[in-house]
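task queued by scheduler; priority normal; single chain, no ligands, no partner chains; default sampling; output format set to structure tokens
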Amino acid sequence: MKKFCPNCGNPVEKDDKFCIRCGQSLDNSTELLKKENPVKPSKKFKLVYWLISGIVLLIIAFGCAYYHSYQSKQQTLKEISKMSQHKLAGLTIVYAHLHYDNLAWERTYDEALKGIMDVQRYKKYNLHGATIMAKGNNYVYVINNQVVFTTNKKLTNKQSELVLSDGKKIVGRVNTLNAYQEVRQHKYAELQKIDRRKDMYRLPLRTAAIMAALSHDSEKNIQEEINFNYKHHEKMLFNDENGEYRLQLGADAVSGTRFKYSGEDLIIKYIKPQDKGAAIDWPTKTIRVGIEDLVDEYYQTVDQKKFVNSLANKIILDKSVNR
């Protein structure tokens, strides 16, 4: 067995009295270092070591994956619980695009991507000649006067079911949470785009009412009637059935203007005065005007904006107007 200097570790011979490197005396030394062959671990020991290491790594990996999944689900639930009426409509539109080959829903999807999305809530609505009624705590949500979906507002969004229809038939049903998870995975960019652009073509309600009236009446008449009603605290804007609003500036029917949002247009109805006959027999005229065209005509210059805004701010809303 080879020996070494206890001071510097240099190899020494059995009969050496001094270390030739450091000069350490080797006489009567009981501290000579002995180098023994190291014991090598067995193959079985190595196998157990790697097996345990692998199990520990798997536990850590599964733990991290579970934590990430849990955090992601909690974030999803948080986003759904705070989802507005418009974003819920956007979710329904994108989900329908993913699953259903339906002309009405595809048209609504194309319009929503352009920022054209009007959503209104009812208990009963007539769409394309069919009356759609919401049962119990459900409500009917009408999008662009083309498609509808219903959901239960007493339940949280994660618990409720979306029922999609084109007014003629039920297109499909889906849990809101499941729909959101699928859209988030496949078409989340479209959902965000719709949410960002939803108000691009949406005129403020009072402004739309003034422009609807201007489409068939003179500035002077409208201004006089609004100022009179405002002075006497008379309500002027009402929400009638089927998404129609009514700007009522006088006691007779001729003084009323009905309008409703329809995608990028306003559908406007008014009674057209005639030279003959009683007012009750005068015909109702219906026109469809693009919102952009109305803006170009009545809301372009500084003076036009000032005039429209001054009248719009004086319109007193009836309690039926919930927007």
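post-processing summary
- Residues 265 and 290 are 4 Å apart (CA to CA).
- The chain has three domains: 1-36, 85-197, 205-312.
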